[in-house]
Amino acid sequence: MALLRVSSPHAHGPGSTARLMRLVILATLPAFLTLSFFFGWGTLINLVWASLIALGCEAAVLKLRKRPLAFYLSDNSALLTAVLLALALPPLAPWWLTLIGVAFAILVGKHLYGGMGYNPFNPAMLGYVLLLISFPVQMSAWAAPAGVEGAIGVEGFSAAFKTIFPLFGDPLPVDAYTLATPLELMRENKSLTLDELWALHPVLWGLGGQGWIWVNLAFLAGGLFLLNQRVFTWHAPLSMLIALSLMSLFFYGGDDSSSKGSTAFHLLSGATMMGAFFIATDPVTSAVSSRGRILYGAGIGILVYVIRSWGGYPDGVAFAVLLMNMAAPTIDYYTQPRTYGHKKPNKGLAKPD
Fold first, then answer.
1. What is the SS3 assignment for the chain?
2. First CA to last CA across the chain, in angstroms?
């Protein structure tokens, strides 16, 4: 009987790249709704604007590379990059900030290395780090979450649109609607006990800070949905969260002014859950083997705590992910599974007799 000779790829149907990307985008919906509830219309505006930029940059590069537009645009990878970056940016970030970040993520983070599947770094985090290093003031201008006593919010779609796109109206002064994030307040604290810090800053009320605790729980819900759909395995996210928990537990100073925050605070503030379930699980830039993913995730968790506590930035998820992206090939080399019929993993070509 003759066998059919069919070239790769061999995967079709339910397991397609486009379907997986759509599932991940769908899983961000709880976080998107939560961010919109606490921080207003800016999240929606950023998401639409970032998506348009990503699709435009993707189409332009594909045209230059003479690749079929419909085939590559339909895989939803550029759209997912835009969604993740838009959710990570401050909701009222100026339009040009989103433009630079998304364009850099698509053009440099993705296509400079050959496109999807060839990029060694997570494109969304690469764009985020570029913005964080280049424009720290704009990247730290987070709007006050709804419900914080005495905070001035940007009410309504029109006000948010004019703040993001000031060409269409007079925006509010940045100082009028922004507050320091819980991670910033914790990192800058040098003299107050945690009880005094909590009493002085209403934004800290709650385990991870008002608003941020619900955002992290929303990302957790989306991540558990993806885990249930078998989009990724549990190894990287669980090891990251365990490593971060152990670090925060070991260095926890109680109510002392030198304390870096409790385990619950670190798990439910900043971009912890987004990093664990939506960034560390990227199949292209993470480790491949199960043991490798455990080491990869643990490395991210340790680095997140180190950067948050002693680094120059309040949240270290993006930096931690990029550093471990560089380490992923080495981790894969030393954690290769044993080949069937061999006692040890074959880490290289067989030597000639």
1. CCCCCCCCCCCCHHHCHHHHHHHHHHHCHHHHHHHHHHHCCHHHHHHHHHHHHHHHHHHHHHHHCCCCHHHHHCCCHHHHHHHHHHHHCCCCCCHHHHHHHHHHHHHHHHHHHCCCCCCCCCHHHHHHHHHHHHCHHHHCCCECCCCCCCCCCCCCHHHHHHHHCHHHCCCCCHHHHECCCHHHHHHHCCCCCHHHHHHHCHHHCCCCCCCHHHHHHHHHHHHHHHHHCCCCCCHHHHHHHHHHHHHHHHCCCCCCCCCCCCHHHHHCCCCHHHHHHHHCCCCCCCCCCHHHHHHHHHHHHHHHHHHHHHCCCCCCHHHHHHHHHHHHHHHHHHCCCCCCCCCCCCCCCCCCC
2. 38
pLDDT at 5 over 70: no
Sequence ranges of the domains in the chain: 18-178, 182-334
Q: What is the pLDDT of residues 259-307, one digit of tens each?
A: 778 898 899 999 999 999 999 999 999 999 999 999 999 999 999 999 9
Position 100 pLDDT exceeds 90: yes
Tens-place pLDDT, residues 184-233: 878 777 777 777 776 777 677 666 667 889 999 999 999 999 999 999 99
